[in-house]
Amino acid sequence: MREKNRRHPRMRGIHRMSTSKPSEEIEREEINRHRRRFVGATAMTLAATQFGMINPAAAQRTEAKMPAIKPGTNISLGVLKQIDAGLLNVGYAEAGPADGEPVILLHGWPYDIYSFVDVAPLLASAGFRVIVPYLRGYGTTHFLSADTFRNGQPSVVAVDAIALMDALKIDKATLAGFDWGARTANIMAALWPERCKAMVSVSGYLIGSQEAGKMPLPPKAELQWWYQFYFATERGRAGYDKYRHDFSKLIWQLASPKWDFDDATFDRSAKAFDNPDHVAIVIHNYRWRQGLVEGEAKYDDLEKRLAQSPVIGVPTITMEGDANGAPHPEPAAYAKMFSGKYSHRTIEGGIGHNLPQEAPQAFAEAVVDVTASS
């Protein structure tokens, strides 16, 4: 775990940023969030425009000052929408102008669209068209057919997101997410780079395979994955089904040990776990990743490509909280997996796994910056 910012132990969202190429060593520097928001972004954007690095329209968007926001300010994403997309009827929130630059925000497990409850209005105020969907098995997203296999393998979640883009007539978008959402964004950027303008990925490069999932880890690392072993058993499936709210709250506490969320914040998200397909999707996802169950043959070609650990070429900012209690790789371990414009930001102030909800300002700024760089 990284050293905290000793000067400002109570300030959540201060971040260190590093820029690297695959062959370069990652460098970090302390950045004051407020100076960055009001001065740095504008100056850097103007300079980049002068040197032809980004187009003037993107420069104007970055110059637009996002309002400062305290985490937990918002409690609603507005009236949700529904749309048929692929195998699903997807529930999603939308904010910002209809003709704005599209950005798709992807949540993880056990979280939901409220991870972006403060991020979405920030990006909307900057002129983005913001789409925040419930993944399969969460919230108001449901299968169109009762006969569809409840498949949770990672490539399928990415296929869902592509189908949603098609349904919304979005040709290309900035993708941003954490946990399952970051993995989904990684897969989309690797397999369909023509659909991905840029990416923000918490915890970096998360593409894996069944073979990789079978490899044993040192004991302390294995301990962090205790819930995967629990889910591998029928007792684990039944236990998660019976205690899904208590189980999810425990994961929140372990993954973000310094995030003092209240019951109302958790309860807003926990409603998404009442989806009738939630347990089936979650259990299949983790069992598939350990090679304990099969996926669907129609996705085998995608999985073969992902098993090669494809390098991602779209402009990317990776992020990490300085107090992430969930298993995650070190930035130096995955920097080489990004061949395009790339930088890493470590967010200071006791920020845990649910980075968008714990540090919405920093997350939104990353989306604006990476989009402007593309």
Protein topology:
Elements lengths: L13 E6 L9 E3 L1 H18 L5 H8 L17 E5 L2 E8 L5 E6 L12 H7 L2 E6 L8 E2 L10 H14 L5 E5 L2 H12 L4 E7 L7 H4 L5 H6 L1 H6 L2 H9 L1 H12 L7 H8 L7 H12 L10 H7 L9 E6 L9 H4 L7 E7 L6 H4 L1 H13 L2
Parallel strand pairs: 5-6, 5-8, 8-9, 9-10, 10-11
Antiparallel strand pairs: 1-2, 1-11, 3-4, 4-6, 4-7
* Backbone structural class: alpha/beta
- Topology-level CATH name: Rossmann fold
Spell out the CATH superfamily: Alpha/Beta hydrolase fold, catalytic domain
Assign a percent range to the helix content. 25-40%
Strand tally is: 11
Secondary structure tally, helices? 16
As a percent range, the share of strand residues is 15-25%
> How confident overall, as mean pLDDT?
87
CATH class reads: Alpha Beta
Radius of gyration: 19 Å
Shape: globular
Reading the helices and strands in chain order gives EEHHEEEHEEHEHEHHHHHHHHEHEHH
- Mind describing the biggest β-sheet? 11 strands, mixed
CATH architecture tag: 3-Layer(aba) Sandwich
Q: pLDDT under 50 segments (min length 5)?
A: 1-12, 19-64
Query: How many domains would you count in the coordinates?
Result: 1
Distance between the termini: 31 Å
